[in-house]
Amino acid sequence: MATRTLFQYIVDEPKSLTSHLLTLLSTNPPKPQLAIGSTTSLPPTPDSLTENHHFLSILHSVIGINAHQDPDIQSQAQAMASSGGSNLGSGGSQFSQQRQRRRERTGPSHGGGGGTGGDGAGGASSQGGAGGAGRGGHIHVYDYRHPPDYGRIPDPEDIFGSLEVDGQGMFVDGHGRYQASGTYRVCTRDGM
User: Fold this and answer.
1) pTM of the model
2) What is the pLDDT of residues 13-56, one digit of tens each?
3) pLDDT digit string (tens) for 81-113?
4) Do 142 and 154 touch, CB atoms closer than 8 A?
5) Alpha-carbon distance 186 to 7, whole Å?
6) C-alpha–C-alpha distance, residues 12 and 9, integer Å
7) Nearest to residue 29, comparing CAs of 2, 54, 7?
8) E-state strands within the chain
9) How many C-alpha atoms does 20 have within 13 Å on its Cβ side?
C-alpha cells in the first residue's frame, strides 16, 4: 500500500521488512530502479536514506536538457553578465571615486578598488554584489530547500550542477554544458 506524501509516495520495499521505497510514481508495484531511494526510518533522514544512483542519473539528464529554460536560471545567467558592482568605488561608471586631488604620488596608491589604485580588483567588500562583470562563468542549478542569500552560493549538498554562461549572459552552446556537481544529496537536514 502506497502512502501519498507532499512530494513522493512511500511504499514498503518488497524485498525487506524494515525498508521503504520513496518514489515520485504511483505505480503498483513500485519500480525500484526508478525510486528516489530507500529508507529505514520515516520520515527519512540523511543517515537512513540510501539514494538510488540510477534515479539521480535520470534526474541529471533531465536537468541538463531543460535547466536553461527555467526563468530563475535565466535570471541568474543575466546577473552573471551584469557588472555586479565590480566598478563600485573604483572610479568606474557606477560611482566615481571620492574627490581625489591630483598630486604627484610618492608611494603606492590606495584608491577605491580595495587598495589597488581604483581598478576594482581589491577585496570582496570593494567589489559589490553578484555578477561576473561581463566575463561569464558558471551558475548553479540548485533545489530550494535552503535558498542562499542574494549573491551567495548555495550549500554544496543542495547544488544539482552548474551551467556555463558567456559574458553576455547567454548559455554556452545554447544549453550551458550542464555538469553534475557530484555533491548533491536527496535528503539533508533541511529535508528532501
Assistant:
1) 0.71
2) 877 888 999 999 988 888 999 999 999 999 999 999 999 999 99
3) 876 644 333 333 343 444 444 444 454 444 444
4) yes
5) 12
6) 10
7) 2
8) 3-4, 9-12, 20-23, 37-39, 49-51, 137-142, 159-165, 179-180
9) 19
